DNA sequence: GCAAAGTATGGTCAAATGACCACGTTTTTC
DNA sequence: GAAAAACGTGGTCATTTGACCATACTTTGC
C-alpha cells in the first residue's frame, strides 16, 4: 500500500526521496471494508486521510433518516472533515467506504510537523485546498441553478471514473434528487 | 469611509496603530450605486474588497437568462471572486451592489505585500477563509437536502441582518427556488 | 457456490413546483 | 414631487418530483 503512495509523492508532488521518508514514517495504513466507517459523526476527526484505492463518501443523515452525500473521494485524493479536524469539534458528517478501500492516515500533530518541515508538501496542500474551494463553489452553483438532468450530466462529466462504481441511490443522494427522478432521467436518455 | 475601516481593524483584528497605517495607505475607496457592477464576468478580479456599508451580491447568469446568487456580502465583510483573483483567469461571476455601497479595494500586489509584512493580518485572513469553507459546506448540504421552506428558514436564521434589505426575488435566486415558491412559503407561514 | 443483501427499474398517485400573467403598492430616480 | 421602475402577492394550469410499493436482477460475503 505504501509503495503506491510513494509513487504518488514522487510523481505528483515531485518530492525528492529524502523528503518522502519522513512522510512514510508517520503514516498509518488502514484497510476498510465496504460500508465501514472511517469517521463517525460526533467523534472528532483526528487524521488526514489519503486514499490509495477505493472510494470514500462523506455524508450526513437528516432528521428523517435520509442520507445526503457531501463528497466522494477516491484514489489519490485526500479527505477529512476539515472543520472537525481544524477546530477539534465533533464531526457533523460520517465518512465511510463505498467499496473496499486502502487508506493511509496521519495524526494531526504528525502531519503538522511534516507541513512545517517540508515546504513542497505545504505548497501542494495549499493548492489542493484552493482547488477544492473553486470546485465547491461550482458545485453549489449547480445545486441551486441546474435541473436534475443537468446535475446528472454534470456529475458524469466531472466524475467519469466514479459512475460505474457507485450505486445510483448514492449519486442521487449526492445530487440532491430522488432515486426515482434519477432513473427517470436515465430512462429518458436511453431514447435520445 | 476609511475611519470606519480603521475602527474595524483595531477592534476586530486588534491591530496596533502602526500596523494599520500601511493598510490604509494602499487602500482605494470606492462608492457604488445600486446595481453598479464591481466585477463583471469575463474580467479578471484584481482586487480584494472590504465592505464598509451596503450589500454586494455575487451572481451568475445561466444560459436561459436567470440570475443565481452565490453569495451576499455586507458590512465588515470581505469579498472577491477567489478563483479569478488567485489564478488571474476571467471571472465567471458578477459582483454588483444591491444597495448603495461603500467599499475599499486593494490591488493584489499591494495586499500580498501587506499579508507578507503583517502576520496578524495574515492569520486573520486565514481564519476568515477557513470559516467560509465551513459555511459553504453547510450551505451545500442545505442546498441538496433541505426543503424550500427549510432553506428559507435557514436563511433567515443565518442572515437576520439581510432579510429586510433584500428583495425576495434575490433571496429566491440565492436559495435556488422560484419566487413563486418563496411567496407561497411566506403566505403559509402567516397563518401558523 | 449459495443465501442474503443490495440494486435498478417501473407503476401509481398526490403534492410541490415553476412558468406566465395581472394588479395594486412601494421605492427609486431625477 | 412625478414618472418610471421595481416589488410582493395571487390565480391558473401544466409539469415535475417524490413517496410508496413491487419485482426482477446483480452483487456481496461467508
UniProtKB/TrEMBL annotation, chains A, B:
This is Crp/Fnr family transcriptional regulator. It comes from Xanthocytophaga flava. Residues 15-132 form the Cyclic nucleotide-binding domain. Gene3D superfamilies: Jelly Rolls (2.60.120.10).
Amino acid at each position: 500500500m505504501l509503495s503506491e503512495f510513494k509513487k504518488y509523492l514522487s510523481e505528483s508532488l515531485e518530492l525528492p526521496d529524502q523528503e518522502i521518508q519522513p512522510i512514510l514514517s508517520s503514516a498509518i495504513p488502514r484497510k476498510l471494508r465496504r460500508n465501514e466507517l472511517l469517521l463517525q459523526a460526533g467523534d472528532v476527526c483526528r487524521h488526514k486521510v489519503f486514499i490509495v484505492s477505493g472510494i470514500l463518501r462523506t455524508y450526513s443523515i437528516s432528521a428523517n433518516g435520509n442520507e445526503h452525500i457531501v463528497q466522494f473521494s477516491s484514489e489519490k485524493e485526500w479527505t477529512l472533515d476539515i472543520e472537525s479536524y481544524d477546530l477539534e469539534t465533533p464531526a457533523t458528517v460520517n465518512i465511510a467506504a463505498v467499496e473496499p478501500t486502502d487508506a493511509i492516515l496521519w495524526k494531526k500533530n504528525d502531519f503538522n510537523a511534516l507541513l512545517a518541515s517540508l515546504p513542497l508538501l505545504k505548497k501542494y496542500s495549499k493548492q489542493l485546498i484552493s482547488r477544492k474551494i473553486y470546485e465547491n463553489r461550482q458545485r453549489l452553483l449547480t445545486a441551486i441553478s441546474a435541473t436534475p438532468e443537468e446535475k446528472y450530466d454534470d456529475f458524469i462529466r466531472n466524475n467519469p471514473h466514479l459512475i460505474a462504481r457507485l450505486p445510483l441511490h448514492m449519486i442521487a443522494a449526492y445530487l440532491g434528487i430522488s432515486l426515482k427522478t434519477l432513473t427517470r432521467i436515465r430512462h429518458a436518455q436511453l431514447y435520445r
